[in-house]
Amino acid sequence: MKKYPTIYLEQQVHRNSSKLLIKFKYDNDLISIIRGIGGAAWSKTLAAWHLENTKENYDKVITTFKGVTIINASKISKTFPFKRKLTNDQKAILNNFYLYLKGKRYSKSTIDTYTFFMADFVNFHSKTPLEELTNRDVELFIEKVFIERKYSVSTQRQFISALKIFIVFYPQTKINDLVLARPKKSRKLPNVLSSEEVIKIIQVTKNLKHRAILVLLYSSGLRISEVTHLLLRNIDINRRQLKIEHGKGRKDRYVSLATTFLPLLQNYLVTYAPNLFFVEGIEGKKYSESSIRKFLHKSVEKAGITKKVTPHTLRHSYATHLLENGVGLRHIQELLGHSKPETTMIYTHVAKKDLLEVQSPLDTILLHLSKNNKREEKFLLSGNYNI
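Request: output the structure for the sequence above.
Response:
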């Protein structure tokens, strides 16, 4: 009998709604089962399947997978979201807050999330006028809602951020912004592949399109969404440069193309002849991110690598290998498109180098291989693949 991966259940706020997250190691059979649950959907942002966070859906998931595999619900609070009973005046204030956020040009996701938090907060203290709310009321809300629902630290940080903006919008409260502290964000070290593991994954990926995608993910340190949104007009082979438009935080940036990637890139472009995007799906539409995750998972298995590897693992590996090659933290921040240096600090600190001298870690790996291969056989990215 097949042993299925353990299913982990969590709760998290996403797009103005409390979600029940269903996480597990990639498995086609479990995916088929979860697709049969009404309302279940995949979120690339959450990297999980999810349902509305209700007791009915929780019971449905438990019933569906009971006897199929192990279910870990240790992060689930048995206290499910309450129904709001807001007055017309409260609704009007929250609606104006929503419009205020739109005027400040926040993203739709941020606007929805912040409005959701404030609606919950106002509803929780519905018997207390907004003008009378204090910092102790904030603490009570966190203790009774966030702690009991076992919301993550990052979710609590989002609520504090929303509240800080709300009291600027509605300064009549007695909440003191100066003592509103966000809990420290937990820092989990990312999974990183060794140089040898990266090459193994590339070598076992025989499909030309798949190999081109994986090499680009690693050699330029791109996010998976940046690869699927990459336009052909933003690929400059002559300058060995990519322009990433509207990346995370709505920022544009330039990244370099590895010299050793160019033959593979040109072969791919000639063979597949995409029209608009670097990589295209059926009828020229954007390529599916789930398809990338799927073939990467297969390549990782073929390479005999047991650690968890996602497209973002290739990005983490890119940054780490740059660091090991002596590239400065400031340059890595710029190449990755991080808005804050603290985000890049997870890869620790290193010496300085001019950005123009930065060499892709892929070039370094292949150069090392060519120098140390006793049989004098060169591993070429542009060879040994299938179309």
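The chain has three domains: 7-72, 88-179, 195-372.
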